[in-house]
Design brief:
Subcellular location: Cell envelope
Number of helices: 10
Radius of gyration: 24 Å
Oligomer: single chain
Shape: elongated
Strand order of the largest sheet: 2-1-3-4-5-12
GO cellular component, one term: cell envelope
Number of strands: 13
Structural class: alpha/beta
Largest sheet: 6 strands, parallel
CATH class of the largest domain: Alpha Beta
CATH topology of the largest domain: Rossmann fold
Distance between the termini: 66 Å
Keywords: Signal
CATH architecture of the largest domain: 3-Layer(aba) Sandwich
CATH superfamily of the largest domain: Response regulator
InterPro entries: Peripla_BP_I, SBP_2_dom
GO molecular function, one term: carbohydrate binding
Strand content: 15-25%
């Protein structure tokens, strides 16, 4: 009799534990993350920070992170997340052609939070930095360091579409507002250090005097600084950047003759997108769009932004 009683109690406890575990798993929200395959250090850091935040929330969510090389692959992965049962998806669609699959996901009842990229789909949420404000801050930074006169090179990146256009517009609009009378020279480049080095080397040959370089990206800026160093030029007093690259931060105190600046557009913002997705699923009141203001990093404060674990 006692053995039977012990068995029943033990069995009852096991059933209770299994049932409790089942309920606990069911109570977790399912969130998928769609990111591009690595084409740039900044993009690699997006997936890194997304996974870090999902791990921090693992007591509340189940998650899957997928990376893709084009719109067709990302669409296929979006379908996989639907089959898995994703209730919300954080998407970083770098290519055109994602509007239809994202619209279909929303129509299927999935909450979608776009990171960085803005697409024309009703019902999509968005978290991004302020590209226009990066240009605004860059203009203020340069005029603060060299005054309102001088020769300034603008390095735009036409292949980056609205990212480059907004950063350039913010820069030019602000120069006009504050009455800066710069001799401006605009050149096309890319968001890579190799392009920054090659293009800036050519630009240095064309101009005997340059006071500042408005670069929009930290990787480009690393190449720019290398070109200046190799040419032995001492006339350039400011090189801006953008993104939040650890290597560029670490260079800042090494160049006391040049102010190296980065308008922080941190890949860590994707954590806010994951948080937004979870808040939506919890039924919280969430704004349709969250734009994160620009933070300026230079040798006076770079130590606050160092992250030894960051891949960018």
């Amino acid at each position: 009799m006692k053995k039977a009683l012990v068995f029943l109690v033990t069995f009852s406890l096991l059933v209770t534990l299994v049932f409790a575990g089942s309920v606990s798993a069911q109570d977790k929200y399912k969130i998928g993350v769609l990111a591009p395959a690595v084409t740039h250090g900044w993009v690699a850091a997006v997936a890194y920070h997304a996974e870090a935040r999902c791990e921090e929330l693992s007591d509340q969510i189940e998650y899957r992170i997928q990376t893709s090389s084009n719109a067709a692959e990302m669409t296929s992965q979006l379908d996989d997340l639907k089959t898995w049962g994703a209730e919300a998806i954080v998407a970083f669609p770098q290519w055109t052609g994602m509007e239809v699959p994202i619209r279909m996901a929303i129509e299927d009842g999935i909450e979608v939070v776009n990171f960085d990229i803005k697409i024309d789909v009703d019902g999509v949420y968005r978290v991004a930095g302020d590209n226009y404000d990066m240009g605004v801050e860059g203009a203020h930074y340069i005029t603060d360091k060299i005054g309102k006169e001088g020769t300034v090179v603008i390095l735009e990146v036409p292949t980056a579409g609205s990212v480059s256009e907004l950063r350039k517009a913010g820069f030019l609009d602000t120069l006009e507002e504050i009455g800066a009378d710069f001799d401006l020279h605009t050149y096309a480049t890319k968001f890579t250090r190799e392009a920054g080095l090659s293009d800036m080397s050519d630009i240095l040959i064309r101009h005997d005097q340059i006071d500042a370089v408005y670069s929009m990206d930290d990787e480009t800026s690393i190449g720019v600084v290398k070109a200046i160093e190799e040419a032995g030029r001492e006339d350039i007093k400011v090189v801006t950047g953008g993104g939040g690259m650890q290597e560029y931060f670490e260079m800042m105190p090494e160049y006391q003759n040049i102010w190296l600046e980065s308008a922080l557009y941190s890949p860590a913002m994707v954590k806010d997108a994951v948080d937004m997705a979870l808040d939506i699923l919890k039924g919280k009141d969430v704004p349709q769009e969250k734009i994160i203001p620009t933070t300026i990093v230079d040798r006076t404060n770079y130590e606050k932004f160092l992250d030894p674990d960051s891949p960018y």
